[in-house]
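Board notes, transcribed. Complex of a protein with iron/sulfur cluster.
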Amino acid sequence: MKKDFQLPVKKPALIDLGRIDEVLEGIDLSQDPPEDEHLRQYYFIKKTRMLADSLKADRGRDLTFHVNTFGCQMNAKDSEKLSGVLKASGFTETEEEDADFVLFNTCTVRDNADQRVFGRLGRISHFKKANRDMKIGICGCMMQEASNVEKIKKSYPFVDLIFGTHNIYRFAEYLFQVMSEDRKVIQIWDKTDQVVEDLPSDRKFSFKAGVNISFGCNNFCTYCIVPYVRGRERSRDAREILQECERLVKDGVSEIMLLGQNVNSYGHDLEDGITFPELLEEAAHIEGLKRLRFMTPHPKDFSEELIQVIKRNPNVTRHIHLPLQSGSTRIIKKMNRHYTKDQYIALVRHIREEIPDAAITTDIIVGFPGETPEDVDDTIDVIRRAQFDNAFTFIYSIRRGTPAAGWEQVPEEEKKTQFGRVLKEVQESARRQSEKLQGKTMTGLVEEVNTQTQGYVTARLSNNMIVHVPGDASMIGSFYPIHLEECRGFYYFGTVCGDRC
Ligand code: SF4
């Protein structure tokens, strides 16, 4: 790394649920809540835990919680922290929605996501009638839109806690308020300059983890609500990020994904001038870290420096997700994405020359306002020339509050027709790319037991491809050499052909 940049981090790490008792022991409840946001949240965790202990004694049973998560990987990561706070505060997780505390962590990227949340909220209201002590909370991106908050206040008055994305780190404090006082808590902030990450986290997987490196987005793509609900981009202190990664590796994690809405513009707002490639390189050198991923990069910020960091660090995974959205320069401009068709193709070609074993995947939107069949021809041309290894393809749907929502829309039938053309190209491209790996042996990380095929487990390769192999739960979290035998479109069936590696 070129910059003057040194570990360790400035403040103590407070994160592992396993160490929570030790951390809480140092918190003095006879004092006022601390000013420091991290310590302040642990102060309230300790208070809620004492309250939970007395409620458990009164009710003669555990207090349970259930977190419903909607949306992206960053929301999933936030939910690990929300669950971590609840567990640290004395609650026990349950799969059922009739828990003592039910929390909805919402997404608002698509209008129909909002409707799903309202539907689920309506369904759990009868649990509250049966259990008057039940508390219901709702947070996340949907709550940053005033109309949604108003609707909940009016139509779902049984909701006890509403908070947004900017103050999610205050959850422990709000939890204590709703548990200790019989009143609603509604806290929506317009913005924050705080990045508070070192809170208890209940990681879903023991062997892989996401690490937030930045929050919000400055790009204002004209179809996207994220900059409005997540705010402007804020990068997290690099020393804190690296220390969290080191701690995870010590804890047994072998694969880390660095997360940001526009991950490769990381650092633009930091005074020390550290860039994303520099951070990635530093993280790649963490001893014991076998795989390092990142999501989601923007093509306009995909620099030569970044390509070279990936190339020279074999533990940075051979998977580059490069959202195209449209292959038509005219539509890309209307989307406010800041690249042209030719620039995008040149970037893909260059990545393929420099890192030939990297899989390149993408996102494509079909039916953006004003899109013609000729624009879709351009998208198909890019799919053929880029030879994508896989793609998520979406039909454009209106997202209220974004500029594109007010523009003349493509008729639904036309969208479907064009979507079919794009999907066919994407599937053919994915199949062609996957078939190239037939007969090869590659390293896979076993992630889970395959629920569809008995006696099989599912592994993920560095290039993000899924392979199903005969095996059992004891293999989860370990790497194995896998012989790729039968291509099924964009995934494989194979066999383990060597020892754990
Ligand atoms: S880069 Fe564009 S699509 Fe991605 S979060 Fe930012 S505004 Fe949304």
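Residues 1-14 have pLDDT under 50 and may be disordered. The chain has 14 helices and 19 strands.
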